[in-house]
Design a protein that fits this description.
Layout: H1 13-24, H2 36-41, H3 48-61, H4 67-74, H5 81-85, H6 92-106, H7 111-123, H8 127-147, H9 152-160, E1 175-177, E2 185-189, H10 194-198, H11 201-212, E3 215-219, H12 230-234, H13 238-252, H14 254-257, E4 264-266, H15 270-277, H16 279-282, H17 287-295, H18 299-303, E5 323-326, H19 330-335, H20 341-348, E6 352-354, H21 369-372, H22 374-389, E7 395-398, H23 401-411, E8 418-420, H24 421-428, H25 435-438
The protein binds iron/sulfur cluster (2 copies).
């Protein structure tokens, strides 16, 4: 596409990157075919091609964003399915990120929207406050349901409150967990925020699984210091995202880990891992950001390199190997561009692995999306659950806490266990039965 940026605008590195992406776009519309919001509405402004045009206009004219632009960009899930489809290699993420930043800076949102978004950006990344909010939400939930007098965001947040709020003592402690037998790999595990508040057992299963298979696991001091930045990033809060990333690099103290000796850096929520991979783009002036980003891997990629210790396959109710439906999070399939490693790992565990129809489409979780755009999120959640259940699985497996929560809360009465890949491999290789399976 032709662009019309002024010489002055082109001095801005963010505009240079946006122009690069815009010039690659040939307006073919292939991306619309795999965009979840375009699939739901058939509306050009609810697809990537239309959004790209709106963002280009916003950046070139520097006009105030109209309500139409704000709605179109707010409805985008940042799932990056369009990037995976685009034959011209358009880096849509740079465009949507910059468009969102401009909307945030414009101050064109209502007071209530600014308050909700500001609160989410502060609350969710803080494990202590998030745990308090969950407890408060548990008390408030009956009132929300009874009166229906709260905003859809508050109601959606209430829907995330688990029946059982895990004890903070379940969090794994910083330290070095030695490999069982010969050390084949050394992995640094960063604990993060929301997942640790909702499901600390996932990281515990990860440590058991990795150490059992010859990996020493280093859990850095202060690795649960805070959010990787993905949550404010989803909200278009660039400065807060940058601040969090810089603060993380400082408190994680990479030098103390001996990064040279580490084979991989891991966060078990794939959305967070994908964010860490983007640190080098986010902080191009920070050498440690690139050092870290280059080492980031998903758990499935680490496990796919190891020989799993599975003696006999887990059996389902029919006496045949368990059937699992694999729900590949967008952050893994479109962010990491990883589609095969998790399936290889699950098959190496002796499981029968099914994939749902339209596996490329988002489940509607998308960071804070299901809190802010609950109507679309719920349609996407229902579609995803139907597709997963159509594969007739015994268990649903995923690797992102947001997707897991979205699927289990959407599933309602068809409740099947939804477990993390780490818990599944732990169980199959002689470890603990996942809580979600045990509690049924
Ligand atoms: S597929 Fe790529 S080139 Fe075609 S319209 Fe979409 S972003 Fe542009
Ligand atoms: S990121 Fe996802 S929702 Fe947004 S335009 Fe691309 S495919 Fe559509």
């Amino acid at each position: 596409m032709q662009t019309h940026f002024s010489e002055q605008q082109k001095t801005d590195p963010a505009i240079q990157r946006a122009e690069d992406a815009l010039r690659k776009c040939v307006h073919c519309g292939f991306c619309n075919a795999t965009c979840p919001t375009y699939q739901l509405t058939g509306n050009e402004l609810e697809g990537p091609r239309g959004r790209i045009t709106l963002i280009q206009d916003l950046l070139e004219t520097e006009a105030e964003p109209s309500p139409e632009v704000i709605t179109s960009l707010d409805h985008c899930l940042s799932c990056l399915s369009c990037e995976s489809t685009c034959p011209s290699g358009v880096s849509y993420r740079h465009l949507i990120d910059l468009g969102r930043e401009r909307i945030e800076q414009s101050g064109r949102r209502s007071f209530s929207q600014r308050t909700i978004r500001g609160t989410l950006a502060r609350l969710l990344p803080n494990v202590v406050w998030f745990r308090r909010a969950l407890r408060f939400g548990k008390m408030l939930n009956p009132l929300v349901r009874f009166t229906g007098r709260f905003s859809s965001s508050v109601a959606a947040l209430g829907g995330l409150v688990p029946e059982h709020i895990p004890d903070a003592k379940a969090l794994i402690a910083p330290g070095v967990y030695p490999a069982e037998g010969e050390e084949l790999k050394r992995v640094a595990l960063i604990l993060g925020c929301v997942q640790n508040a909702l499901a600390p057992e996932i990281d515990a299963a990860t440590v058991r699984t990795l150490t059992r298979h010859g990996c020493a696991v280093v859990v850095p001091e202060k690795s649960k210091a805070g959010c990787c930045g993905a949550l404010p990033h989803h909200l278009g809060k660039r400065q807060q995202t940058e601040n969090m990333a810089r603060q993380n690099l400082e408190v994680w103290d990479l030098e103390a880990w001996d990064l040279e000796a580490i084979d991989a850096v891991l966060m078990t929520a794939s959305g967070c891992g994908s964010m860490l991979k983007d640190y080098s783009d986010l902080l191009p002036d920070e050498p440690s950001a690139k050092l870290l980003a280059d080492k980031v891997k998903d758990l499935s990629q680490i496990l796919a390199d190891l020989t799993l210790k599975v003696e006999k396959p887990l059996l389902g109710p029919s006496g045949k190997p368990l059937v699992v439906a694999w729900q590949n999070p967008c952050s893994l399939q479109h962010g990491f561009k990883e589609k095969t490693a998790p399936i290889d790992v699950l098959e190496a565990c002796g499981l029968t692995v099914m994939q749902p129809q339209d596996a490329h489409l988002c489940c509607g979780s998308a960071g804070t999306y299901n809190l802010l755009q609950s109507e679309i999120a719920s349609q996407l959640g229902n579609n995803k659950v139907t597709a997963l259940l159509n594969t007739r699985p015994d268990i649903i497996v995923s690797s992102n806490i947001g997707c897991m929560t979205q699927i289990s809360t959407t599933m309602g009465k068809h409740k099947l266990p939804v477990v993390h890949l780490a818990e599944m491999v732990d169980w199959a290789s002689g470890g603990e039965i996942p809580g979600a399976v045990n509690n049924l």
